Amino acid sequence: MTAQLEVVLVRPKEDGNVGAVARLGKNFGIDRISIVRPRASLGQEARRRAMAGISLLKNARIVDTFDAAIDDADLVVGTTDLSTGRSTAYLRRSVSPERLGEMLRPLVGRVALVFGPEDNGLDRDQLHRCDVLVHIPARRDFPTLNLSHAVAIVLYAALRANAPSDPETTPAPEVLLLRGREKEILFDRLTELATRAGYPRHKRPGLNLMFRRIFGRATPTEAEYRMWLGFVKSVDRWTRKTHG
Q: Fewest Cβ atoms nearer than 10 Å: which of 88, 97, 104, 122?
């Protein structure tokens, strides 16, 4: 059992790139392509570049908003050409494609691999909605990759993670069942609890971001999310009873 991989393209401007991504999707066995408000025509050039991936191109889901593109994803992986390093100025600590592959190996669920426009990349609000960020190392003087090339590298890392395990090895790999719905419910409950506890309003966005960052790295199971929800519910009851 492996994760279902979906590529999400946000406002792509080159139809050839979209076609090439469809071909890559066929190469690496992705489940679906979703496109947010494409600026590309998705015409003859896209079909020519898609080749065997033409079915993915024809069945691509076209949506109007970023949220609609990731609405059924259990884990949202964004890509960025910024290496965050140890700086606190960025929304997330980015991981390498190899590290992403390690994270995906035990997961079961729908994983959205999100790529921004060729000219600007994902904006801050979109990056904020991602659970994990991936950065592909490149030369400092020219760190931005072509869209389809970036998709190829990330999908290759994901494919290696989803390759069948050696049946001669033990123990069997752990399987982690993702549940995106429980994740978002937990974040909502934690936000409500912080509000009720009087946590400073101006600090709440940073607190919410920290929650998403930590849980994105940890990829908890459904049972672990439910335990967290039970704990938060107990704390909420206690605060209501104690402080009205």
A: 88
Of 162, 192, 218, the position where a domain reaches its end is 162
pLDDT single digits (tens) 160-178 = 766 655 444 445 455 556 6
Q: Residue 19: pLDDT band by 50, 70, 90 thresholds? A: very high
Q: What per-residue confidence (pLDDT) applies to 177?
A: 61
User: What is the number of structural domains in the chain?
Assistant: 2
Q: Which of 107, 134, 162 is the last residue of a domain?
A: 162
Together in a domain, 121 and 14 = yes
Q: Which domain holds residue 101?
A: 4-162
